[in-house]
Amino acid sequence: MRLSAWQSGSSHRESMATKVMAAAADALVLLGSERDPECWVAWGDDPGARYAILALTPAGLAVVNVRVNMPGEGPRAAGKIVRWHRVSVGELSVEIHGGHRLISFQLESQILHASDEEADEVARFVGAVFAAIDGRPAPTDDAIALPGPAAGESSEPAAR
Questions:
Q1: pTM
Q2: Pairwise CA distance, residues 110 & 104, whole Å
Q3: What is the pLDDT of residue 14?
Q4: Residues 2 and 51 in one domain
Protein backbone atom coordinates (compact mmCIF):
# COMPACT_ATOMS: atom_id res chain seq x y z
CA MET A 1 0.00 0.00 0.00
CA ARG A 2 1.34 3.44 -0.87
CA LEU A 3 2.02 6.05 1.81
CA SER A 4 -0.64 8.33 0.31
CA ALA A 5 -3.22 5.54 0.74
CA TRP A 6 -2.26 5.24 4.40
CA GLN A 7 -2.67 8.98 4.78
CA SER A 8 -6.06 9.18 3.09
CA GLY A 9 -7.51 6.09 4.79
CA SER A 10 -6.04 6.47 8.26
CA SER A 11 -8.22 6.44 11.34
CA HIS A 12 -5.45 8.47 13.01
CA ARG A 13 -5.89 11.63 10.91
CA GLU A 14 -3.87 13.96 13.18
CA SER A 15 -0.95 11.53 13.11
CA MET A 16 -0.82 11.78 9.32
CA ALA A 17 -1.50 15.50 8.92
CA THR A 18 0.28 17.28 6.10
CA LYS A 19 3.02 18.78 8.29
CA VAL A 20 3.73 15.38 9.90
CA MET A 21 3.82 13.62 6.54
CA ALA A 22 6.16 16.29 5.11
CA ALA A 23 8.81 15.35 7.71
CA ALA A 24 8.26 11.62 7.12
CA ALA A 25 8.39 11.95 3.32
CA ASP A 26 11.60 14.03 3.50
CA ALA A 27 13.22 11.35 5.67
CA LEU A 28 12.10 8.61 3.26
CA VAL A 29 13.50 10.50 0.25
CA LEU A 30 16.85 11.06 2.01
CA LEU A 31 16.98 7.30 2.63
CA GLY A 32 16.54 6.58 -1.09
CA SER A 33 12.81 5.98 -1.18
CA GLU A 34 10.17 7.47 -3.40
CA ARG A 35 8.13 10.29 -1.87
CA ASP A 36 5.08 7.98 -1.97
CA PRO A 37 6.63 4.54 -1.45
CA GLU A 38 5.16 1.09 -1.05
CA CYS A 39 5.14 0.78 2.74
CA TRP A 40 3.52 -0.44 5.90
CA VAL A 41 2.66 1.76 8.87
CA ALA A 42 3.16 0.11 12.25
CA TRP A 43 0.98 2.14 14.60
CA GLY A 44 2.26 0.75 17.89
CA ASP A 45 0.76 1.50 21.30
CA ASP A 46 0.23 5.25 20.93
CA PRO A 47 -0.46 6.20 17.30
CA GLY A 48 -1.40 9.72 18.35
CA ALA A 49 2.18 10.31 19.48
CA ARG A 50 4.43 8.02 17.42
CA TYR A 51 4.51 5.29 14.80
CA ALA A 52 6.92 3.65 12.35
CA ILE A 53 6.88 3.53 8.56
CA LEU A 54 8.49 0.49 6.91
CA ALA A 55 9.18 1.37 3.27
CA LEU A 56 10.72 -0.53 0.38
CA THR A 57 13.74 1.06 -1.30
CA PRO A 58 16.19 -0.36 -3.85
CA ALA A 59 18.95 -0.48 -1.22
CA GLY A 60 16.95 -1.99 1.63
CA LEU A 61 14.12 -1.47 4.06
CA ALA A 62 13.72 2.12 5.22
CA VAL A 63 12.53 2.29 8.82
CA VAL A 64 11.32 5.77 9.73
CA ASN A 65 10.14 6.52 13.24
CA VAL A 66 7.71 9.42 13.32
CA ARG A 67 7.03 11.55 16.39
CA VAL A 68 3.80 13.43 15.78
CA ASN A 69 4.39 16.47 17.98
CA MET A 70 7.62 17.19 19.80
CA PRO A 71 7.02 19.98 22.36
CA GLY A 72 8.30 23.25 20.96
CA GLU A 73 9.49 21.58 17.74
CA GLY A 74 6.56 20.04 15.90
CA PRO A 75 6.76 16.71 14.08
CA ARG A 76 10.01 14.76 13.86
CA ALA A 77 11.05 11.83 11.67
CA ALA A 78 14.22 9.78 12.13
CA GLY A 79 15.11 6.76 10.08
CA LYS A 80 17.63 4.25 8.84
CA ILE A 81 18.15 1.85 5.97
CA VAL A 82 18.48 -1.84 6.76
CA ARG A 83 20.20 -3.49 3.80
CA TRP A 84 18.13 -6.31 2.31
CA HIS A 85 20.59 -9.03 3.34
CA ARG A 86 20.32 -7.82 6.97
CA VAL A 87 16.56 -7.36 7.21
CA SER A 88 15.19 -9.37 10.10
CA VAL A 89 12.08 -11.32 9.16
CA GLY A 90 10.06 -13.79 11.17
CA GLU A 91 7.67 -16.49 10.11
CA LEU A 92 4.64 -15.67 8.02
CA SER A 93 1.65 -17.27 9.74
CA VAL A 94 -1.77 -17.56 8.15
CA GLU A 95 -4.98 -19.00 9.56
CA ILE A 96 -8.20 -19.34 7.63
CA HIS A 97 -11.37 -20.29 9.46
CA GLY A 98 -15.05 -19.77 8.87
CA GLY A 99 -14.57 -17.34 6.02
CA HIS A 100 -12.04 -15.21 7.92
CA ARG A 101 -8.37 -14.79 7.15
CA LEU A 102 -5.77 -14.00 9.81
CA ILE A 103 -2.12 -13.20 9.17
CA SER A 104 0.88 -12.42 11.34
CA PHE A 105 4.42 -11.49 10.32
CA GLN A 106 7.39 -9.97 12.12
CA LEU A 107 9.59 -7.49 10.26
CA GLU A 108 12.42 -5.64 12.00
CA SER A 109 10.83 -6.14 15.46
CA GLN A 110 7.48 -4.79 14.21
CA ILE A 111 4.61 -7.26 14.26
CA LEU A 112 2.23 -6.96 11.32
CA HIS A 113 -1.04 -8.71 12.06
CA ALA A 114 -4.42 -8.32 10.46
CA SER A 115 -7.61 -10.05 9.47
CA ASP A 116 -9.71 -10.37 6.31
CA GLU A 117 -9.19 -7.50 3.81
CA GLU A 118 -6.31 -6.00 5.80
CA ALA A 119 -4.72 -9.48 5.85
CA ASP A 120 -4.66 -9.33 2.05
CA GLU A 121 -2.78 -6.00 2.28
CA VAL A 122 -0.26 -7.48 4.72
CA ALA A 123 0.23 -10.46 2.38
CA ARG A 124 0.88 -8.13 -0.57
CA PHE A 125 3.42 -6.14 1.43
CA VAL A 126 5.15 -9.28 2.72
CA GLY A 127 5.29 -10.64 -0.84
CA ALA A 128 7.00 -7.43 -1.96
CA VAL A 129 9.45 -7.64 0.98
CA PHE A 130 10.32 -11.28 0.18
CA ALA A 131 10.80 -10.38 -3.49
CA ALA A 132 13.10 -7.48 -2.59
CA ILE A 133 15.15 -9.66 -0.24
CA ASP A 134 15.50 -12.25 -3.03
CA GLY A 135 16.36 -9.56 -5.60
CA ARG A 136 13.38 -10.27 -7.83
CA PRO A 137 10.50 -8.07 -8.99
CA ALA A 138 7.50 -7.73 -6.71
CA PRO A 139 4.74 -10.19 -7.58
CA THR A 140 1.48 -9.06 -9.13
CA ASP A 141 -1.57 -8.60 -6.91
CA ASP A 142 -3.11 -11.85 -8.17
CA ALA A 143 -0.03 -13.83 -7.19
CA ILE A 144 -0.10 -12.55 -3.61
CA ALA A 145 -3.75 -13.04 -2.68
CA LEU A 146 -4.21 -15.29 0.31
CA PRO A 147 -6.09 -18.54 -0.26
CA GLY A 148 -9.58 -18.97 1.06
CA PRO A 149 -12.91 -17.35 0.39
CA ALA A 150 -13.09 -13.71 -0.58
CA ALA A 151 -14.62 -11.30 1.89
CA GLY A 152 -18.31 -12.00 2.33
CA GLU A 153 -18.14 -15.49 0.84
CA SER A 154 -18.76 -18.55 2.96
CA SER A 155 -16.25 -21.36 3.11
CA GLU A 156 -19.09 -23.83 3.72
CA PRO A 157 -20.06 -26.05 0.77
CA ALA A 158 -23.31 -25.15 -0.95
CA ALA A 159 -26.38 -27.06 0.27
CA ARG A 160 -27.86 -29.54 -2.18
A1: 0.82
A2: 10
A3: 85
A4: yes
